[in-house]
Amino acid sequence: xxxxxxxxxxxxxGGPVHWRRTTLGGAVFCALYGLPASSLAQQAAxxxxxxxxxxxxxxxxxxxxxxxxxxxxxxxxxxxxxxxIDIASLTEEVPGLSTYNYGARLIxxxxxxxxxxxxxxxxxxxxxxxxxxxxxxxxxxPVSGYYQLTDLKQVEILRGPQGxxxxxxxxxGAIRIIPNSPVLNSLSGSLDASGGFVDHANDLAxxxxxxxxxxxxxxxxxxxxxxxxxxxGFVNVFGLLKRTDNSLTGVPLLANPNDPVNSPPIYxxxxxxxxxxxxxxxxxxxxKPNSAFSAEAAFLYSHVRxxxxxTTNLDYLGGVSPxxxxxxxxxxxxxxxYSQIDQPFSRNTNLSSLDLxxxxxxxxxxxxxxxxxxxxFMISDQTYNIAGQAGxxxxxxxxxxxxxxxxxxxxxxxxxxxTFSQEIRLVSNVxxxxxxxxxxxxxxxxxxxxxTWYVANPGSxxxxxxxxxxxxxxxxxxxxxxxxxxxxxxxxxxxxxxQHFEDKSIFxxxxxxxxxxxxxxGGLRHFWQQFTDEQLxxxxxxxxxxxxxxxxxxxSKTVGKLNPSYEYSPNQxxxxxxxxxxxxxxxxxxPETGIFKESPxxxxxxxxxxxxxxxxxxxxxxxxxSYTVDVFYIDWDRPQISASLPSGNLxxxxxxxxxxxGFELEVxxxxxIPGWNYMFSYAYVNARLTSDYSLPANNGLGVITPGELTGTxxxxxxxxxxxxxxxxxxxxxxxxxxYVLSASLNYSWHDKIxxxxxxxxxxxxxxxxxxxxxxxNVTAMVTRHQWQGGLYATNLLNRQNVLVxxxxxxxxxxxxxxxTVSRPREVGLRVGYSF
Length: 835
Prior knowledge:
mainly beta, Maltoporin, Chain A, 22-stranded antiparallel barrel, five-stranded mixed β-sheet, 8 helices
């Protein structure tokens, strides 16, 4: 049974006090909207009242404005109108929420962040090593991986540290994805399909989805949904080599089989290269034998696969290939890319969950048991990058002397994560007569993660043997000192990292309604954690082996929260908040000997924590106008940075201190014109280092150098824009008594996102950044009874946003300048039927 809503009006007395509070509310409204209080009645008379939003972020049901901290809630219709299909596209719609958007193929290497609480720069294809700074949940179950957002009630975004209720990993906030639950005694369902034309694509984009809710007697209900989406590629790729297969070790075929040393490869081009298809399905069974008890079991499955990524090379002027002098490459462009090989990827994600709830009268006892797995695989072509890195210093070790014209240098990334979680909560049933509300609970999580990184130069070692090479190659050598060293199947490097994480915690929050319209909430959570990392590091080329030795990193921590709020007028609130967040530390199994050795100071990294200070106003008026405005300051201690080091090693290390400050504004309501309403949100986030740090590291040439890893106080943190906004204009009208027109225009914008603190020696010579981002989407749908149909357009202005700049720009005459970009305009038709 859900808890009662504690609405401010339930605790009102009458008469003069109510009048005074309304006057104060009107003054606040005037300040926010620039409208006289007398116009409220006129707008209410001319506009239908907007629906009140109920959220459960505090584990109690509350109206959105009554939650005493910054939270946004987006309905399924809002998500659809804005073109939101997954977490990455959600970040484009919610100011203050951001991510490095490489698409689904690199989802394991990226994580969302809120309010700029992220210190990690450009990720590699390997999965993340540190814990994510934002907790993501489907219902009450933590989850990772890739899945489409479908058949949802709403999505809630909780800004700022949420350590007391949401635990480790909610360092900067939390995302709650809330699906629709099965409905008793109701047979219902829907079918939806869409098809659209994508600029520069030869194939149609299309989706198909369905929902079915089936009652089984009076106490059982089953609900299932499925969605399939096909996104055609829009990039034409040049320079593909035909190989024995498209795996990591596929050997390029010879154009002239009689000349295994000098023969060029067989080339091909491919249009619409970067296609992707995905399917997500979720089924749930609800048992509710009486009003007090319920049990809901659910299973989610998601699969995504594709080839390549949304990358284009805008800068290459064309010319002779730096690998094969017989090959001439055409100039680049907005929809052209260069790759030696196909780059397939795939990912499976599963989530099984069981939610039990029993209403004991004074409180509701709930338990959530969940188990999720996600596993992914991808191939990445790094041929041009290794040829350009450090002026080509490493090229002879992998491509031979002279360079193999069929040289391929490819990466294979794989990851697997298995996580079991158990949470038990006792949540008081609230009411206007209750002086205290509380939430207490226990949490346990056991997580195993493995990431593998393989590198190969298929065919090049055999070619060096055919050359007659007799001794190993070295920098500046000439034949016969040109023999390439590799392992089985021409694998040159293996990194296999295994992590085990165990989290036990106890938590609680207590709210004291100390006066009629005032309350204060205090909370605590205590963690007991164990983390173990072991890593195999095997480099055949440079004869380096690090055996998988376990490194342990235990932690214990208590975080707190203090949150007073006051309802100064009906449904108008002011609040203050101090809250803390916490993230586990860990270990790095980096080499400590050989050419890739690292400093012992990088063996471990410490937990990091945040202190959030926030003040805000929130409110809702009877005609549907609502607002949230807040200012915040987050003090961040020992921020974790996951980075590719100058040597090429991957590691996590700590800076000293950082901070994020800013303000957020969210308003929505009727426009005063029948049928029209709007939503507008804006965030300013100034996230930066607040002290210098300096750490030793390998300089890329085998020498541990003091101060190789540095940061300067005042430097902007990477990963989030300073300014971001989203605006939506909605219109609904009856065309005839049977036909209803609904139209929506959505616009989102943010300024540039930094990807680095400073240039990385051997990789870049500059601090890289994205372009400013703009996206406009429009939908127009006509509904008649059970049928719906209409038009949609995403990226209406057909703007090519640079989401991710090149990782190694301006090398090989700009052949390494691959930009990750947004999808071009898509215009199509959508139809649906519901019953």
